[in-house]
Design goal:
single chain, mainly alpha, 16 helices
Length: 438
């Protein structure tokens, strides 16, 4: 059963969050190593190719990010209500959907890539290299998507130490293989893709091993629970709303990179370097966001409104504190980090020019990240979907108004405006969330 409201303390929040913060620290490090290793070649096109290839695949995979988010909300609520057979059933539902979705990506890779590059205005050199990268990485799609469900299931039970093990093994092996394949064997863009392919399958295998207790509980009663129609409908509704929300979010970020590509290879490469700062901010916040998902979800399952509010407030303190620290780090250390990530002087100069916009991202995005966690834990996914639609339309308006007149400056203002709109719209809906819990 869920702990009472006195069980929610800063210590408990940190116990959930810190393993995620540590593991997530390796994720942007991985992106930085990918970019930095390719950057040693001394040309802009390979950097842009890895950036576009990675963001296309990440965007496609993250459409199924509902497996992570929806599984946290549903599992934590089942745990709060003491429904342990449903907790186990959710593991099989989430993992099974992830593996099937990954196989679908492998089968549909040709039309998906064709559509992606039809939308993307990248140069022919960048597109050719990006296709090589994606044609290798796509074969680990079942592992990459399956891990979403596994990590969501573990987070809901506050087993973030297990998530740390999966992420550390996957990301550190990826980094080491990057260095070996690219700098040692001179495999270039293909080496980066092969490294990620191997690392993602290794991560899935470890995740399944850590969930072996759930696998050992297979029985006819469990399969009946897994295939229960009302529960499947509820999971489909929750995940459908998150799917729309995630798709619009990814369209926003993919369009940001594509609009940058239309401004030239130097601008594309600079934006790719700077996006690593955005990913760093997002992943640094994730630990506390996951804590909010878990604590709020358990409070909803136990019908404890005071616990819900306490969990939201305690995690918010850590999210906003972290955002201030990150903004200061980006502002002061950003130029040094940029110079480490790329040796191309034109890319360095362009990235420094737009660095102030990146320094604002943690401050402007903190509210959106924190409330995402609260709404996911409460499975208020209809609100998440609707508020994302409003925010995305606002982002499109910013692009139309700012990009033609201000170029890449306008593009960065638009993406920052997207963060602000997401935070404001979710904040407007928070009182309704508390009322529904009561």
């Amino acid at each position: 059963m869920a702990k009472d409201n006195l069980g929610i303390t800063h210590k408990r929040v940190l116990k959930i969050a810190l393993p995620i913060v540590i593991s997530n620290a390796t994720v942007p490090l991985l992106g930085a190593v990918d970019t930095g290793v390719i950057g040693q070649i001394g040309m802009a096109a390979p950097i842009g190719a890895v950036g576009i290839g990675a963001i296309i695949l990440t965007a496609l995979y993250w459409i199924f990010g509902f497996l992570r988010m929806g599984t946290v909300g549903l599992t934590s609520q089942a745990l709060g209500a003491g429904n342990h057979i449903e907790v186990t059933a959710l593991f099989f539902r989430a993992t099974g959907i992830g593996l099937i979705a990954g196989l679908a990506f492998i089968l549909l890779q040709w039309p998906l890539f064709l559509a992606a590059f039809w939308i993307s205005p990248a140069s022919s050199e960048v597109e050719t290299l990006a296709r090589e990268y994606m044609s290798i990485r796509v074969w680990s799609a079942p592992a990459a998507i399956g891990i979403y469900g596994i990590t969501g299931w573990l987070i809901a039970q506050e087993r973030t130490g297990a998530v740390l093990c999966v992420q550390l093994l996957m990301n550190l092996s990826n980094i080491l293989l990057d260095l070996w394949f690219v700098l040692g064997l001179d495999l270039g863009v293909q080496g980066v893709a092969i490294a990620t392919f191997i690392a993602e399958w290794v991560g899935l295998l470890l995740g399944l091993f850590l969930c072996r207790r759930a696998v050992s509980q297979v029985s006819s009663a469990l399969w009946h629970q897994i295939l229960d129609k009302p529960l499947l409908k509820r999971m489909a509704k929750v995940n459908g709303d998150i799917l729309v929300r995630s798709a619009l979010l990814q369209v926003g970020f993919v369009s940001f990179l594509f609009f940058g590509a239309d401004l030239g290879d130097i601008t594309l490469a600079a934006n790719q370097v700077l996006l690593q700062f955005v990913y760093l901010a997002s992943h640094a916040m994730d630990g506390f966001v996951f804590a909010a998902e878990t604590l709020v979800g358990q409070a909803i399952g136990a019908r404890a409104t005071v616990q819900l509010r306490r969990g939201a407030c305690f995690t918010a303190v850590w999210v906003f504190g972290t955002s201030i620290v990150l903004a200061l780090v980006f502002w002061t250390m950003g130029p040094v980090i940029i110079d480490i990530m790329t040796k191309e002087l034109d890319v360095q100069m362009a990235a420094r020019l737009y660095l102030p916009y990146v320094a604002m991202v943690p401050l402007l995005g903190a509210t959106a990240w924190m409330l995402d966690g609260v709404f996911i834990g409460a499975t208020r996914t209809r609100d998440m979907r609707n508020m994302m639609i409003i925010s995305f339309l606002g982002y499109c308006g910013f692009i139309v108004l700012l990009l033609p007149n201000f170029g890449n400056h306008g593009l960065w203002w638009a993406i920052n405006g997207f963060f602000v709109l997401r935070g404001i719209t979710l904040a407007v809906r928070y009182p309704a969330l508390e009322r529904s819990a009561a």
